Backbone:
């Protein structure tokens, strides 16, 4: 398959579902089930090589071979487009991409009436953004709902206008838009910060809104595009979910939103140097957009309790939230996890990316305390520095370790060694990640800031007892299978480590429990199974009702038979659709997925 | 991340509130087996006795002072606090249900005086770069060289010099205008370029042709000399080529000043009124320099300087280019096209009048030429065009959206 990105923003790749008999996937992996056509929506992620969360999406798409995926990807930078795509499995029927970065003008000039409609709707959007706290947190919930309603109506109004006119990117940057923003900012009852907006701030906000609202101008919402899928699955919140919202508005396609990190929160952390009015308006936009997305989505799946709390706070209904933990490949750690006796009983191991947030200094101080109690203990710090800051921090830690712990040797004639070793994976001693965990009896995590602690999950897969600081999703991940201490408390960390080092039996018990918990919760299989279940649930609970019309405009009865959702193809495709530069086998005669195979599967 | 510097000193926290807060909790959350005890409790009580924290949230606010002052809503504080490792369990120590309600209290308690400190946004003025500033001089230099060579050459060589000179000036002009403040996106350039060439060609040869045509000529092709039957108006073309440099500099001046005013202005109307005189001033400056250049080249080439035609054409071309550089490509293309067509029609009408029975066709042009001379046609056409564009640009170029930088930070 030709995976290079095209300069053309919209790329259709049609891959044939007709494989030769040797390569045919069995249409059924389980009894029953349904064929679901999923529109996977990403922003700066899958299928780009450098995308965020592409690994997760790739596993999901590959794991659900019985369904069909249409990928709708928004790219984040020119470099990302240049670097190309990952290889796509055959269940990906089509990939359409659009850039969110270039300032390309679509050349659409609005007529007089369209301009007036645009001005009205953009003005409504702007006034919803500028609505001050009086309008927001009134006595009752009413005013807040009113603002959310106005925002949603303005958004869909703009989308309809974009669909009618063929694009809005020129209008969104025009003076009309800036004027509407200014009017909204100067209106009585507007946010205090917004009232201070100067002209450059207005321009910045208009430019940012234009970029974020670019999905409005795309032609993805036709009946052959997102209108034809059974559900939209947004791989992140924010702009990625915007096409899903519009598809829901235009064609009634249900929306599923997965957020492993809350988009609104990362927006707050990212825009720190812009002037206050810009930040206030953009924060309002992203907040309202998030609320709209959570409100309209059928199901929202946060990746951990932390994301869940943010989503609840932003207005997501609890009944819609299903936590789906990210899945990790457990097979790498199977060998180590099933052989707990390989561990060196006197060794602590820390694995991760070296950066200041990991607070290795605290770990070293804790280790000094541990050495007072258990002089033979060793500490292996495994990991590469992250960026220049990380490299400087690593140097700092090495110097501190050399200061705290003098080299020591077994006897008078042996060459000494430092009890703290800094290593990287890939060397002769630690060829793989699993070996790093295998080397230690206790895995330590000393971070002060942590999202979803991947290294902790890996340690759990390896069946190692863990001592970690109480940050981020650590408590949620570890459950009752490890020790948790407060962050920035070396003495508590040391106490917990010593307790585990002195008690091999407890270590083993905790390790086994941790491995069992990880295998239950954090495997790829559970992740895929959870999404499979959610897909089927959505399709069953809120199917898209499509009325097909014949040539005269009359509705066709029985145009979408129940067989449309039967897994596999029951009839050969009418036309041969082959990917550009497609593989040789795709040019062969069509092969039917015969009913016999399905019947065998069902027996 | 300013706060992360503090991470290097675990256990030696600078803030008494943090120390106090930390001592409140049991050190190890035991989940399996016996409790390992509370080894830190004795020093903790000692510390608490020494410094009782009256208002723990106030201490927290002091520690995250910058974050609180900067925040535009409570969620921003919540995100910032979480990035510094504050969790719901930490928030519980401040008697809050979660980080969000803690952040709300902090947001509500930040002192906000009515008048915000005046922000000094550094104006992102485009810098003068040597490349375009020098390149803008090249077309004039080349054109002067070509005209001089043309003056001193004879016969066949003249044709060669003329062709080479025109090509060289065209290429250099394209290069010079492809960077700097007069740069126009490539896509929009194509129709405008053809119309521009037509207008310049008319400025060079049109007046002579018109005069010859009215006198039942022309009998020969132009020789490139100013005193033939079909004379070449070299001075005007030279002045136009030389005016590339002042045009680029004026455009730069306009863009830079407009952007600086953008940073300082509070309202769109106010901005528009402040940019209008700037636009007119820049335009007048260019006209003055073009007039000086025309006089200069006329004197150098011993020609009578055709001031009106050159000035109006220069004004038209500058405004068209300035509009194009700020993203308004529609109006310049239309006006340039109309002007070039009008000139061509004027010429054609004179020739068409020679057909039997069509003598009336040349009447308007003849009347114009007898009244004010052959230069009246381009002056009238280009003047109308320039005036149209001037009115148009005084409405569009004064908009703030015309001066938005494409790579605005979000």
Residues:
């Amino acid at each position: 398959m030709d995976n290079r990105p095209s300069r053309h923003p919209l790329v259709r790749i049609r891959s044939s579902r007709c494989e030769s008999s040797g390569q045919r996937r069995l249409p059924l992996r389980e009894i029953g089930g349904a064929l679901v056509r999923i529109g996977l929506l990403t922003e700066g992620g899958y299928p780009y090589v450098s995308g965020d969360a592409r690994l997760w999406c790739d596993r999901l798409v590959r794991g659900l071979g019985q369904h069909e995926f249409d990928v709708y990807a928004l790219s984040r930078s020119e470099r990302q487009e240049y670097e190309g795509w990952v290889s796509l499995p055959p269940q990906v029927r089509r990939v359409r991409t659009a850039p969110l970065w270039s300032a390309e003008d679509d050349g659409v000039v609005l007529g007089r009436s369209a301009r007036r409609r645009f001005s009205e709707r953009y003005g409504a959007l702007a006034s919803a953004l500028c609505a001050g706290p009086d309008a927001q947190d009134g006595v009752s919930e009413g005013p807040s709902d009113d603002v959310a309603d106005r925002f949603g109506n303005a958004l869909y109004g703009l989308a309809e206008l974009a669909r009618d006119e063929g694009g809005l990117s020129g209008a969104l940057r025009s003076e009309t838009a800036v004027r509407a923003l200014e009017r909204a900012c100067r209106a009585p009852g507007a946010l205090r910060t917004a009232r201070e907006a100067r002209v450059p701030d207005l321009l910045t906000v208009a430019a940012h809104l234009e970029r974020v609202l670019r999905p409005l101008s795309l032609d993805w919402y036709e009946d052959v595009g997102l209108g034809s899928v059974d559900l939209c699955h947004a791989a992140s919140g924010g702009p990625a979910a915007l096409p899903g919202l519009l598809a829901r508005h235009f064609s009634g396609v249900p929306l599923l939103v997965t957020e492993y990190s809350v988009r609104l929160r990362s927006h707050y952390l990212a825009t720190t140097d812009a002037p206050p009015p810009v930040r206030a308006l953009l924060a309002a936009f992203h907040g309202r957009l998030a609320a709209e997305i959570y409100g309209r989505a059928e199901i929202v799946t946060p990746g951990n309790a932390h994301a869940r709390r943010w989503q609840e706070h932003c207005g997501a209904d609890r009944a819609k939230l299903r936590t789906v933990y990210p899945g990790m490949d457990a097979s790498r750690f199977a060998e180590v996890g099933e052989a707990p006796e390989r561990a060196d009983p006197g060794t602590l191991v820390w694995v991760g990316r070296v950066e200041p947030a990991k607070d290795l200094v605290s770990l070293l101080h804790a280790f000094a305390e541990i050495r007072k109690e258990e002089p033979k203990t060793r500490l292996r710090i495994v990991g590469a520095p992250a960026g220049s800051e990380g490299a400087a921090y690593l140097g700092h830690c090495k110097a501190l370790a050399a200061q705290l712990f003098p080299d020591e040797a077994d006897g008078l004639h042996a060459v000494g060694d430092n009890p703290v070793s800094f290593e990287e994976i890939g060397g002769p001693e630690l060829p793989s990640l699993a070996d790093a965990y295998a080397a230690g009896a206790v895995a330590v995590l000393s971070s002060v800031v942590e999202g979803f602690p991947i290294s902790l999950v890996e340690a759990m897969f390896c069946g190692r007892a863990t001592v970690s600081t109480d940050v981020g999703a650590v408590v949620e991940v570890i459950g009752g299978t490890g020790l948790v201490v407060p962050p920035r408390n070396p003495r508590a960390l040391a106490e917990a480590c010593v307790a585990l080092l002195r008690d091999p039996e407890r270590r083993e018990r905790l390790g086994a429990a941790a491995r069992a918990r990880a295998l239950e919760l954090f495997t790829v299989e559970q992740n895929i199974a959870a999404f499979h279940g959610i897909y089927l649930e959505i399709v069953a609970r809120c199917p898209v009702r499509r009325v097909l019309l014949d040539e005269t405009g009359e509705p066709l009865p029985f145009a979408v038979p129940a067989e449309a959702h039967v897994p596999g193809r029951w009839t050969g495709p009418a036309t041969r659709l082959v990917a550009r530069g497609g593989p040789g086998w795709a040019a062969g005669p069509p092969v039917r997925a015969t009913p016999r195979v399905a019947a065998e599967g069902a027996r | 991340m300013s706060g992360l510097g503090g991470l290097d000193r675990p256990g030696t926290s600078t803030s008494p509130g943090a120390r106090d807060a930390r001592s409140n909790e049991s050190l190890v959350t035991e989940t399996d087996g016996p409790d390992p005890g509370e080894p830190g409790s004795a020093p903790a009580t000692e510390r608490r006795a020494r410094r009782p924290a009256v208002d723990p949230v106030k201490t927290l606010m002091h520690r995250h002072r910058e974050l609180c002052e900067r925040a535009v809503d409570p969620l921003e504080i919540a995100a910032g606090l979480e990035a510094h490792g504050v969790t719901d369990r930490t928030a519980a120590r401040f008697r809050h249900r979660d980080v969000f309600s803690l952040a709300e209290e902090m947001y509500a308690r930040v002192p906000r005086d009515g008048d915000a400190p005046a922000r000094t946004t550094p104006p992102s003025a485009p810098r003068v770069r040597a490349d375009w500033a020098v390149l803008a001089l090249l077309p004039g230099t080349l054109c002067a060289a070509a005209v001089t060579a043309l003056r001193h050459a004879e016969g066949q060589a003249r044709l060669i010099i003329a062709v080479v000179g025109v090509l060289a000036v065209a290429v250099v002009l394209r290069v010079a205008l492809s960077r700097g403040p007069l740069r126009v996106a490539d896509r929009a350039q194509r129709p405008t370029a053809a119309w521009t060439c037509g207008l310049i060609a008319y400025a060079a040869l049109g007046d002579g042709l018109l005069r010859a045509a009215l006198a039942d000529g022309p009998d020969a092709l132009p020789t490139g000399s100013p005193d033939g039957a079909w004379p070449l108006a070299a001075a005007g073309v030279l002045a136009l080529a030389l005016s590339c440099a002042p045009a680029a500099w004026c455009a730069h001046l306009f863009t830079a000043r407009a952007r600086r005013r953008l940073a300082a202005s509070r309202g769109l109307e106010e901005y528009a009124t402040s940019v209008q005189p700037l636009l007119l001033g820049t335009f007048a400056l260019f006209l003055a320099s073009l007039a000086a250049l025309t006089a200069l080249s006329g004197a150098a080439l011993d020609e009578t300087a055709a001031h009106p035609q050159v000035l109006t054409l220069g004004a038209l071309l500058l405004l068209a280019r300035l509009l194009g550089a700020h993203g308004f490509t529609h109006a310049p293309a239309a006006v340039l096209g109309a002007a070039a067509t009008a000139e061509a029609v004027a010429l054609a009408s004179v020739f068409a009048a020679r057909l039997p029975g069509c003598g009336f066709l040349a009447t308007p042009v003849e009347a114009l030429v007898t009244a004010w001379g052959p230069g009246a046609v381009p002056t009238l056409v280009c003047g109308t065009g320039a005036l149209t564009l001037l009115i148009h640009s005084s409405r569009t170029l004064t908009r703030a959206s015309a001066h938005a930088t494409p790579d605005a930070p979000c």
